[in-house]
Amino acid sequence: MTEMNMIQSLNSALANMLEKDENVVIFGEDVGYFGGVFRVTDGLQEKYGKQRVFDAPLAEGGIAAIAFGMGLNGLRPVMEIQFADYIFPAYDQIVNEMAKLRHRSGGEFSTPVTIRTPAGGGIKGGHHHSQSPESQFTHTPGIKVVYCSNPYNAKGLLISAIESNDPVVFFEPKRCYRGPFYGDPHNVPTWKGHEYSDVPDEHYSIPLGEANLTMEGSDCTVISWGAMVHVAEEGIKESGVSCDLIDLQTLVPWDRDLVVNSVKKTGRCVIVHEAPKTSGFGAEMSASVQERCFYHLESPIERVTGWDTPFPHSTEWDYLPSPTRISEAIKRTMED
Amino acid sequence: MTGAEGSRGMDAYSVPEAPYRPGDKPSFDAWDFAPEDLSRPDPKTCTAKETVEHAEGLIRVLNDDGIASGEWNPNLSSDELLLGLEHMCRLRIFDERMMKMQRTGKLSFYMRSYGEEAVAISQTMALKYHDWVFPTYRQPGCQFVRNRDMVSMINHCIGNVEDNVKGRQMPVHYTWKEGYFISVSSPVGTQFSQAVGVAMASAYKGDDQVTITWIGDGASAEGDYHYAINFASVFKPPIILCVVNNQWAISTHRNLASGGENFASRAIPYDIPSFRVDGNDFLALYSVTKWARQRASAGMGATHIEVLTYRSGAHSSSDDPSRYRPSDEQDFWPGGDPIDRLKQHLINIGQWSEEQHLELEQKLDSEVTAAYKEAVTHGDLANGPWPPASTIFTEVYEEIPWHIQEQREQLGK
Q: B193 and A166: CB-CB below 8 Å?
């Protein structure tokens, strides 16, 4: 075990996989010599060579296309999109190509690409360094969608994503790279001492499709993913209500049993995500919980999300769900 | 006044017009390119700059009279030439039969390679069997060269229970991994940049495997074309990048894909050797492709080829080109017809005759008819049996996740 922040644990996952499987290759903008703008691939080119870890031209559509081709021809590519906001030039290659190859070819071809991409707000990134576009991918059959939230699950999930024979879009909450984010921009701790910062140096995996029950309670189920898991934790404390907090971890396929059993137990549900509300993945969760738990629900399902607006620069703390907004939503579910 | 007029008294911007529209009499400039015009550089040392003339000119081996000459003559044996002719005829007759089946509802849709048969046949013959071909819907002919069972191809087109892609894709969207023929996708252009990745993987693994891919003149306006050229320029994988300039993308003339007339030259600034080749000249196409394979195999990277041809048929069974171009435009195409030209060449060298050609066509017609009859015993799109409905849910992922399994159970099949 080593105490790691999320950058280090992701780097450790990549190093383990480069070591374990010679077909793993890593590429993207600035990931080679420089080691990535967030340092996630730091030192990997030096250790594993330029054939396995390399810089790519500034062309997300081209990066995704060559990943598709490499994966189809026996490699296990791990490509980086430097910010999730810049994934859209690659959208056709992901949605129409990677997601459909296995199916369209009658199972003759498949491409096990992992797309790592830093996502989400809280770094004063404005419109185009802050978005959290997970729902743009959860609506596409054929790809798995993962959203890590801490150093421990980041490594275990990334290893599972790389080892998966299906294409995976892997979101990393950039706000949490160096520490958990509890919704207070004036008090941002590091990962030091956090229970999820103890990370094995060796290879381990967390199965895709399994959520993590990070707090256990009795009266309300709070479902979240990415950076908002920590904000939700703070919101729960502020509310004083006894809650289950579910870190979904994988959005497609999501952990039906954990979610359904929890809501049936508590009878209440709050969903928290930082992406805009309309057609966000919270809508899917809300509908699914209603379908499966309607007769156990004591109150309407609440969603606490980013607003249906472009992500702001100076006023991002009023955009992102805050502990207070989450706390109020939880308390509303408790009203008669 | 109609439309915008700029301050200079001219159209505000240029909107290119096709040279000939229905009712016009086409008159293409005659090609003044001769087989002796262009040298054949050494593929292992050639630079992009050395190919400027080749990109701006036109590589031909057969002249208008079917006589072969020049440095690019691949000097194929008569057996190889006859095999090429047979495959081109097979493809044309196959297409004609499939089109008839489409008209009777046995297929939902079809796309012929009419007038462009040399592209897939000649270029695939110039490769090794294990080279990857990453085609568009206009190169199904590669499969004939590699001896794919014709019944299996028809099973796919008619979406029956034996379709190897399980009724999931439209006709002509073949997949055939055993023949290194990568799955055809409808979004035009995506394969072009993906193929660069396929070739990079071959290079990484150290396989002597070259990848060839094609794109149309129309789709060369897509970003994927430019990604491919640039990534191939940077990473230098063993790849052959072909732009099939057949003049038309449905009704969009090639002058909307580029402001210039020449497609070959576009890769020279990317430092990739580039050639324009007469796409209806079986021998020239074979020779240039062989050159590109030698170069790729020697570790020298990509070659870019403009295959200059004409789409003699409709874009697809859903298209009626008489609405936007003269219906006899193909008759004026300076490159003629690829089958007629190779046939004439074989007659010239005393290896073929009109009688033999007729016999060949009859033999192929019987072959196609027999394959068609066998395929329909497994069902067709109009009448079934189709692949089971469960194939909707399988192979979306390697294993069926719970939510898809639930949906499958809802369908109850």
A: no
- What CATH architecture is B49-317+335-382? 3-Layer(aba) Sandwich (3.40)
CB-closest option in A96, A108, A256 to B190: A96
Report the residue of chain A nearest B192, measured CA to CA. Answer: A65
Which residues of A are the active-site residues?
129
Q: Phi/psi zone of residue A264: left (φ > 0), alpha (ψ -120 to 50 degrees), beta?
A: alpha
Q: By the CB < 8 Å criterion, does B206 face chain A?
A: no
- DSSP output for A180-206: ---S-TT----STT-GGGEE-SS----
Q: Contact B200/A66, CB-based, under 8 Å? A: yes
- pTM over 0.95? The answer is yes
Q: Which residues contact A20 (CB under 8 A, 6 or more apart)?
A: A203
* Chain B nearest CA to A99, separation (Å): 8
Q: Does A300 lie in the same domain as A230?
A: yes
With respect to residue A204, please indicate whether it lies within any of the assigned structural domains.
no
Model pLDDT for residues B131-173, shown as the tens digit of each residue: 999 999 999 999 999 999 999 999 999 999 999 999 999 999 9
Range of the domain at A222: 212-334
Suggest the residue from B176, B194, B215, B222 to mutate for an interface test with chain A (most A CBs closer than 10 A): B194
A232 and A158 share one domain:
no
Closest by Cα among A164, A124, A147, A127 to A21: A164
Left (φ > 0), alpha (ψ -120 to 50) or beta: where does A278 sit?
Answer: beta
Q: Which of residues 212-271 of B touch A (CB under 8 A)?
A: 223-224, 227-228, 230-231, 234-235
Q: What is the mean pLDDT of residues B30-51?
A: 95
**Matching residue, tokens 């003699």:** B312
- The rounded distance, in Å, linking the Cα atoms of A50 and A310 is 38
Interface predicted TM-score (ipTM) over 0.85: yes
Kind plus residue range of the DSSP H or E element containing A222: strand A220-224
Crossing angle, helix B117-125 and helix B78-103, to 10 degrees? 140
Whether the CA torsion A103, A104, A108, A111 is positive or negative: it is: negative
Pairing of strands A198-199, A2-3: antiparallel
The CA distance from B93 to the nearest CA of chain A, in Å, is 26
A140 and A258 part of one domain: no
Q: Tell me the per-residue pLDDT of A95-107, one tens digit each, with 9 for 90 and over.
A: 999 999 999 999 9
A286 and A162, same structural domain? no
How far, in Å, CA of A81 to CA of A86, rounded?
7
Contacts of B199 in chain A (CB under 8 A): 69
d(CA A314, CA A296): 42
